[in-house]
Amino acid sequence: MGDIPMPHGSVLRLPTWTPGIVAVSAATAQVFARHTHDQHGLGAVVRGGHGSASGRGPVEAGPGEMITVNPGEVHDGRPLGEGGRAWKMLYLDPTVVTAALLDLSEGRFATAEFAQPVIARPGLAAGLLRVFEALTTPVEAVGRLRGEAMLLALLAGVLHPGEGRGVPAALRLAVQRLDEAPEEPVSLDDLARLTGLGRFQVVRGFVRATGLPPHAYLMQRRLQRARRLLLAGLPVAEVALACGFADQSHLTRLFKRGFGLPPGAYATAGRLQEPSRRSGLGRKD
């Protein structure tokens, strides 16, 4: 397939043939507001410099270096210097990563994380770019077995068993409420009654547990739900309603701020996935 043209100012979601993996190719000077993903993100900078603030420390990466993000990790994004930056990113659903880790650890570990926000290993970055190309090339041209083996080899070099982040029991109820029904209206009073805590305790505890205040966390959960519904083929207006946004323009504004492109463009990127076959990395026997 070769390198994908990346004109300045573009963020493209590219089709892949592997369920549970989203590929994004970007070349932009855009500044991304603080946000989260519900996937593991693994990318390589190919031009310029990329900076962000994450819970694992400051991120400054240049060509030949990898950048990572774990599910739920609050981070932002900005170019370093003038001229923007270009990078290619793979977002992997937790089921894909869990299946890979179970294979790699022979069943000893089921949860994983990326320990370093920046990985300065040019060989690994080059390997990621090869995997990116393989997953965004028609499977007939790549070979399913070869592509899956390349991905496993890449993950073997970057995954670490996850430690998990403890959330106080009372706060866990509030987090669970927003996780399970982000589309439903909720007030700070509702969360205080649910947890038995004061409103200020809820806000302070939420920031400590998730990195975001309750309202910002709720918006991120709505955006992640919207992303999944868009990939499932629902119209943008219907997605906005189903996820609790005021209207389609509200969803579009927040979606572009977090993902770099409007929901319609994100949804219309085709998929090379064969409907009758599943990738071995994410299958359930």
Task: State the helix count.
Answer: 11
Task: State the share of residues found in helices, binned by percent.
Answer: 40-55%
What percent strand?
A: 15-25%
By CATH, the superfamily of the largest domain comes out as Jelly Rolls
Distance between the termini: 32 Å
Number of separate structural domains: 2
Q: Please name the CATH architecture of the largest domain.
A: Sandwich
Structural class estimated from helices and strands: alpha+beta
Uncertain residue ranges: 1-8, 270-279
Overall geometric form: globular
Determine and state the CATH class of the largest domain: Mainly Beta
Mean pLDDT: 86
The secondary-structure element order is: EEEEEEEHEEHHHEHHHHHHH
In short:
This protein is an alpha+beta fold.
Task: Please tell me about this protein's structure.
GO terms for molecular function: DNA-binding transcription factor activity; sequence-specific DNA binding. It holds the Pfam family HTH_18. This is Transcriptional regulator, AraC family. The structure is a single chain. The chain has about 280 residues and is an alpha+beta fold. The protein has two domains: about 10-160, Jelly Rolls (Sandwich), CATH 2.60.120; about 170-270, Arc Repressor Mutant, subunit A, CATH 1.10.10. The chain contains eleven helices and ten strands. The chain has helices at about 95-105, 120-135, 140, 145-155, 170-180, 190-195, 200-210, 215-230, 235-240, 250-260, 265-270; strands spanning about 10-15, 20-30, 30-35, 40-55, 55-60, 65-70, 75-90, 110-115, 120, 160. A hairpin with a 6-residue loop joins strand 1 and strand 2. Helix 2 runs antiparallel to helix 4 (about 145-155), helix 5 crosses helix 6 (about 190-195) and helix 6 (about 190-195) packs across helix 7. The radius of gyration is 19 Å and the shape is globular.
